[in-house]
């Protein structure tokens, strides 16, 4: 029997205070809230992947995570709306790559802890 990875089930994002970070992910990014078993641990859903928000657990530093890239539509409008709601802009939407059948657009925001958050849209 061959073992294989079938997808990304969960991604941990380190934050200083879950109660302060949660509105960025649920209100600004619009991700559905799942549950919070403690004040310093919360889960939100992103498509098939669950995001875990928590302070560093033995390793890692706040604001120095791997960068999650969230797929979106209308990236320019999404980015502008996020800024209007208080998100910190890092890089406005721009064309990153011209592919044979689409354009890849990328933008970056920062969450309240300085974690870099990528936005991406594949424009056909």
Give a verbal description of the structure:
Helices cover 17% and strands 43% of the residues. By secondary structure, it is an alpha/beta fold. It has a single domain, classed as Roll (2,3-Dihydroxybiphenyl 1,2-Dioxygenase, domain 1), CATH 3.10.180.10. Strands 1-4-3-2 form a four-stranded mixed beta sheet, covered by helices on one side. Strands 5-8-7-6 form a four-stranded mixed beta sheet, with helices on one face. The chain is globular, with a radius of gyration of 15 Å. 22% of the residues are buried. The mean pLDDT is 92.
Task: Jot down its keywords.
17% helix; alpha/beta; 43% strand; 2 helices; 2,3-Dihydroxybiphenyl 1,2-Dioxygenase, domain 1; four-stranded mixed sheet; 124 residues; 8 strands
Number of helices: 2
Tally of domains: 1
Tell me, what's the shape? globular
* CATH top level assignment: Alpha Beta
Rounded to an integer in angstroms, the radius of gyration calculated over CA atoms is 15 Å
Average pLDDT, to the nearest integer? 92
Strand order of the largest sheet: 1-4-3-2
Question: From the 3D coordinates, which CATH architecture would you assign?
Answer: Roll
Helix content: 10-25%
Uncertain regions: pLDDT < 50 for 5+ in a row? none
